[in-house]
C-alpha cells in the first residue's frame, strides 16, 4: 500500500509541473535597503562675541571747576579817575634801542581814584612820536589802590637819534585821566645803529665833536647852547596872552630864572621832559636853592626840532591833557616868573617857573 501511495504522489507532482509550461520560477530577492549614512551637518561653532569687559567704576578724576568770570564792575557815576606813575618797568629814560627793532614799553601806574579800571580803559598815544603804537591798548583790571603794568608795543625808528613820545590813560569815554597834576606818560630813548660810534659833546669841547666809542645811556654834561632872545620872547608872549585875558602881566624874577635855567640845562644834558631833575630835585627845591622863598609851580616843554616861543606858549595854552599848563599862564595866584631855555643835539628845552612871593 505504501508503494501505491508513493506512485500516486509522484504522478500528481508531474501533472502539476506540466501545467506550468516553460516558465521558470525565479526566486525574487527583495533587496534590503542599505541605509545610507546621512551626514548630519556638524553644529556650527558659536560665533565668538567679544564680551565687554566689566565696566570699572571711574577713578577719582578731579572735576575741573569752571573758570571764574569776573563780573563787570559797577562804577558809581561820580567816581573819580586818577593815577600815579610808579616806575618804568621797561625802557627807562634814555635807554638805547637798536634802530628798527620791536620793543614793548611798560609803565607801572597806581590807581589813585575811586573808579575800577576795566574794559574800555586804555592807554593811547597823545603827542610826539607814536612809533607804530596801536590806536588803543587795554588796561588790566585794576581796583583803587592797586598797581597796573601798562604796556604798548612799539617799533624804534630806522634813523639813529633821540626820540620821545607821550601817552595817556583814557577812561571808557576816551577822556585822559590825571596823573599827579599831569596826564602824560612819556617815553624817551636813543635809537642807535649798533657799531656806529656815539658822539659825546663835552662841556669844554670846541666845534669838533669828540668821538666816544664807549656806549653811554645819558649825558652827564653837555655843551648846550643858551638863547637869551628865546627866553625874552617867551616872557613877552605869556604876558601878551595875559593882557588879552584882562590880567596883570607877570614880573620877571631873577631867582626864578636861575632855577628855570638850571632845570632847562639838566633836561638838555640828560634828555628828559619832566619836573623831577636828574638829581631828584623838584621845582620847589630848585627855587629854594636859587634863593626864592615863595611857593612855585612850573611848566616844561622839549621837542625836536624846537618850537618857537610863541608856539610853546600856544602848546601850553591848548593842552587839554594837562590843563594846569594853561592855568599857570593865566593864574591870579602867582605874580612873577622866571624863564629858562637850553638847546642841545637839535632839541630845544623850555622851562617857566611861576612864583608867589612871600
Question: What attributes characterize this protein structure?
Answer:
single chain, 358 residues, alpha+beta, Immunoglobulin-like, Pathogenesis-related Protein p14a, 5-stranded mixed β-sheet, 4-stranded mixed β-sheet, 15 strands, 21% helix, disordered N terminus
Structure description:
The protein is α+β, with helices and mostly antiparallel strands. Among the domains are: about 80-190, Immunoglobulin-like; about 225-355, 3-Layer(aba) Sandwich (Pathogenesis-related Protein p14a). About 20% of the residues lie in helices and about 25% in strands. The protein contains six helices and 15 strands. The strands form four sheets. Strands 2-9-7-4-5 form a five-stranded mixed β-sheet, with no helix packed on it. The chain is globular, with a radius of gyration of 53 Å.
Low confidence ranges: 2-43, 45-49, 196-220
Q: Do you know the CATH topology of one domain? A: Pathogenesis-related Protein p14a
Highest-level CATH class of one domain: Alpha Beta
CATH superfamily of one domain: CAP
Overall geometric form: globular
- Which CATH architecture of one domain is right? 3-Layer(aba) Sandwich
Give the proportion of residues in helices.
Answer: 10-25%
Distance between the termini: 201 Å
Tell me the strand percentage band: 25-35%
Q: Kindly state the mean pLDDT as a whole number?
A: 78
Query: Which structural class best describes the helix and strand composition?
Result: alpha+beta
According to DSSP, the number of beta strands is 15
Number of helices: 6
Strand order of the largest sheet: 2-9-7-4-5
